[in-house]
Here is the input.
Amino acid sequence: MSRPANVRYLAGTAPTGAVLLLGRTEDVLVCGRPPGEEPGTELADAGLRAHVLAAPGGDPAVVGAGQAAAQGAETLAVEEHHLTVARHHALASVAPGVRLTDLGQGVEQLRLVKDEEEISCLRIAAEIADQALGELLESILVGRTERHLALELERRLVDHGADGPAFATSVGTGPNSGRGGHRPTDRRVEEGDFLSVCLGSCYRGYRSEIGRTFVIGTSPADWQIELYDLVFAAQRAGREALTPGAACRDVDRAARHVLDAAGYADGLPPRTGHGVGLEIDEDPQLAPAAMGKLDACVPVTVEPGVHLPGRGGVRIDDTLVVRCEADGGPELLTITTKELLAL
Here is the structure.
């Protein structure tokens, strides 16, 4: 295993560049630095042997393949979707008698359903993001740039105990609001703007995501209220569709139908949400062509949005855990109010 999130899932830690070799007689974490020594990493799981490279600059994957050959392995499964072509060739050259096969998405499938310890980390990550966002809303926003607000949010995440941001924080004002993945600019917040914020926290490797839209200054305009209420209704429909056994495409359809019926079929985001965990964008995908069904204890985002070119838009984004009705239905992890606030 070479994909960092997969190494972290199975080994309990993932130093930079580390690989995990599951061998015939023992499992070995091959890494450039001892686990726990690198900032932001933890100790490996008890009983797992760590092989630290003797010289800097080596490739742990190549060393791991050589160890597999030395153990007499005839076949070595690798994560081809993560390896570069050059790295794959290097593995083949160091272990010419070993047949390389593709492990595929085997570990990613194991990661889909989270245990309660993982969900606890996600819950704390969500709480940290809620705290950072709530504090920002209490400050003066008019005149500040998107870039400044994004940097402040990321600082507040760390102040509250996050490893760091789960992804690049997005802040959009005025005509930039409501755009998915908007990269903050030097545009300043103005009276009457929509302000959309999307941020996430990483805690012990697990990532949350929250997105909210606000109005700056006085009471919102009629068109802003109408658009916000529409996206809120779509997001609620998506959240209510999160039940064990529900088809992923049906969750997307539930949210998308609300926006389609209001005449916003064109230009909608390609998906309504996605899984979260050790990566911010995991399976399952909540999209029109998505395959598969939801299981209990699978955390996902529900994040519909509408952007009107030149005017701005609305995005509302929550992280939830799929739960059965007997357990209270979907568990909402991000709890910052979804009321349309005038700041």
About this structure: Helices lie at 4-11, 60-70, 85-94, 106-111, 116-137, 146-159, 222-240, 248-261. The radius of gyration is 22 Å. Residues 62 and 93 are 9 Å apart (CA to CA).
